[in-house]
Structures are given as C-alpha cells and as structure tokens.
Write a structure and sequence with these properties.
24% strand, globular, binds zinc ion, Nucleoside Triphosphate Pyrophosphohydrolase, 19 strands, 29% helix
Length: 438
C-alpha cells in the first residue's frame, strides 16, 4: 500500500440553477450542492462600464459572493461531515453572454426578443463569453477567469425559428440557444472552448484550481482524489480565516497570458511627477510586504472597480495609498503623436488617445485623462497615467506603503522595481521628460 495520502476532498457549491452547468459537473464526477443567489443582475449591470468579458465576470463574482455570504447552514453541516471537516466549501459562480456584431446578449426572457435575436444570429457568428469566479465561502479568497469561444450559427428559416422559440428552450439561456440541447443542430461550429459554450469550462476550472495549488480531483464526489501532499499555497486558499473585506473587483484573474493579475476589471496606476530644484522627480511606493508584490518599488495604484474608468480607479487607489488628494493631480495629455503614436513593443502599446477611446470606451470614455502606457491582455489591462503634482504636496502613506519617495527621473530607478513596471521604466522616463518640458 502506498504511504502517500490522498489530497483532501473539497465540498463545492454551484451558485447557479442552470441544468447544463450541473450536468457538465455531474458528467465530470462532481456533484455540487446548489444554492441560487438573490442578486439583481440588471442592477449590477447598470453600474458596470466593462466590455462583455468584464460583465460576465462581474455577474459571476456577484452571484458567487452572494451565495458564499448566505450559505445555508445545511451546506456547512454537510461540509463538516465531509472527510475533511475543516475545509470550507468553495462556491463557483458562472455567467455567460453572447456577443454578436458588437452587441451583448444575455437571456432573452420573452418569445418576441428570442425571435428577434435568432433572426439576427441566423447564418452569423458570435463570441460566447463565460465568466468563472471561485471563492472560499469562509475567507472570501477568490480566483476568476473568463473563457471565450466563437460560435457559428446555421441559417435558420422563420419556421425553424418559430418552432425553436415555441419549445421554450431559448428563452432562459444566454444568447438564446443551447449547443447541447434542442438548439444543437443549428450550431455548425465552435472555435475555442466547447465547455464554455455550455456555460462552465471544465478545463478552465481545472486551471483555476491548479493556480490556487489545488487539484480538480479534489472535487470528485465518488472517486478518490489524487495522492499527494497539499502545498502551502493550496492550504492557504482553503484556510477559513476571514481576510480583510474587499471591493467586488479586487481579486486575482487567471489571464490568457498564463499569469495571474490583480484586479478583475483591470488595474491602473498614477505616475506622479514634480519639478524639484530644476529636476524632474517621480513618486514611487515601496509596497508593504503583505500586499500584492510586496517589497517592490512601483507607482501607487491598484484594482479599478466596475463602475470606474481606468483613471478614476487609478486616481482613487493613488490617493488612498499616498494621502494626496486626487484633485491636485493634473493629467498629462499625450498630444504629441510623434512621441505617443501607436508603437508596439512587445505587449506594451504607446497610445494615440483618440484611437484608444474608440477601442476601449469602457475604460477611457468619459474621462479627461488618457494613459501613457497600456498593457492590454484582452480580459485584463493595466493603464499608467502620467500626472503632474505640486512641488510641496504632503505625502501620508497608508498601510499599503512601507515608504513613498520622490526619485530623480534621470537617475537610477530604485531596486527592486516591480517586474512589470521595470519593463516600462524607459517609456515612463520618455513621457516624464516630455510632460515636464512644457
Ligand atoms: Zn495577462
């Protein structure tokens, strides 16, 4: 007999009443408890300015957190009777939307709307976005990810559409069709993640668990999990000790680039400049050891919330961390297109402000400021804004900053610099010289 123990089983709660999601999990050997959230989806969407990927993520997060907050005592008792009694249930929230011709469609609800949408979808293709949010019901530690798949829909006659609407199936599913039900014959091709189209991507769930140091086999209900010792990272995610309550868009996102990033709705930072005794200086923050990327120097910033533009989020985070009132910041407008025109270097894009607002109205419209450096990973982005600051402004670091200090832009940057910021240092210096030469 092997002496290596089995990994502990983890109870799962699915925050959805979708039969397709439940069947997907059942077929994969996972029988979750079901608890449906009470959130008002329309109300949440009203405050969100994000693209489709952000919208499905915001809804998935809201549903899962609502269920985690109001978890039935029965579920907790069930969890306590589980083979690993100290492990709180994980709650999984999902939400899907179909994007066709730039429009986002959730559930149609009425036959009239379903008929109209199916006519627009007939012979067309769309992108199905599915947001996934996994949260520890006790600590509220979380991880999220979005799957995307392109769906090609066969031409449908009016008679086919009427007959399909009459089955009732399309009324209560995202995008007005199912790929695994009566609508299946009309889906000609799926490019990308098939499971995501059903409403829950199993490979993405596996990846999310791996990213937290866990194994999908730990969710199996009637089979033994894999053998092994759970890593420190895995125990940390299962730790029931409650963390500081956070805002909804705080948390880690598993990005298509293979890394985890902070901020479900993206993140942003403020590169504050001043002229001091003839020299241009930048304000840098030494992040507190406990914070994200603690112990490294970076510009103050953080997660943008769903209802904020990138600049509003960056400026709020900057103010919280530096004590500098955001009304003192003068955003720099990159008008000189010779310097600021679109110029790709790796995944860093120099910005032409007009084009940018057109491309990402969710992030940049309705704000005076445009970022000087953008890291755009699709589902996640980081916007850096250059602003000028009064020379004598007082700094009051909060507990996320070990130190805040002005550094000469022409001198050596402090060490260790945050890795992603280290790559953009050169661009920021160029922008700083240009911004302060006026
Ligand atoms: Zn990424």
């Amino acid at each position: 007999m092997s002496e290596i123990p089995y990994l502990p089983q983890i109870p799962l709660v699915l925050a959805s009443k979708s039969p397709a999601r439940l069947k997907t999990l059942h077929d994969a050997g996972i029988r979750p408890a079901i608890q449906v959230s009470q959130v008002d989806e329309d109300e949440i969407l009203r405050d969100i300015r994000a693209l489709p990927a952000g919208q499905v993520l915001a809804l998935a997060a809201a549903k899962a957190r609502d269920v985690a907050t109001h978890l039935d005592s029965a579920q907790i008792v069930e969890a306590e009777n589980s083979p690993a009694p100290n492990i709180p249930p994980l709650v999984l929230g999902c939400d899907s939307m179909l994007e066709i011709d730039g429009k986002i469609w959730g559930k149609p609800h009425t036959p009239e709307v379903a008929r109209e949408r199916l006519r627009a979808m007939s012979g067309n293709s769309g992108i199905l976005h599915t947001g996934h949010y996994l949260v520890n019901s006790a600590s509220f530690a979380s991880l999220s990810a979005v799957s995307h798949a392109t769906v090609h829909i066969a031409p449908m006659s009016d008679a086919d559409i009427d007959a399909y609407v009459a089955t009732g199936e399309p009324l209560h599913v995202a995008g007005s069709f199912t790929v695994d039900g009566i609508g299946g014959p009309f889906i000609e091709e799926v490019e990308g993640d098939y499971h995501g189209v059903v409403g829950l991507s199993l490979p993405l769930l596996r990846t999310m668990l791996e990213e937290t140091g866990l194994s999908i086999t730990q969710l199996w209900t009637d089979h033994c999990p894999a053998r092994g010792n759970l890593s420190e990272k895995g125990w940390a995610f299962l730790d029931p000790k409650r963390r500081v309550p956070r805002q909804l868009a705080d948390g880690f996102l598993v990005c298509a680039c293979g890394h985890q990033h902070w901020g479900l709705s993206g993140a942003g930072g403020i590169c504050a400049l001043r002229k001091h005794e003839g020299r241009v200086q930048v304000l840098l923050q030494l992040r507190a050891p406990w914070s994200h990327s603690g112990g490294t120097w970076a510009i103050p910033g953080g997660a943008v919330q769903w209802n904020e533009s990138a600049f509003e989020g960056a400026a709020r985070e900057f103010s919280e961390e530096s004590g500098i009132d955001s009304s003192l910041l003068r955003p720099y407008h990159p008008e000189n297109t010779a310097l600021m025109g679109i110029e790709e270097t790796g995944d860093i894009t120099y910005i032409d402000s007009g084009e940018l607002i057109e491309q990402r109205p969710d992030l940049y419209a309705k704000t005076e400021a445009t970022p000087c450096v953008l890291l755009d990973h699709g589902d996640w982005s980081y916007s850096t804004f250059v602003v000028s600051c009064p020379d004598d402004v007082e700094i009051r670091p909060n507990n996320e900053s070990s130190l805040l200090q002005w550094f000469d832009i022409e001198g050596e940057p402090p060490s260790p610099l945050h890795p992603s910021f280290a790559r953009t240092w050169f661009h920021l210096r160029e922008n700083a010289r240009h911004a302060m030469s006026h």
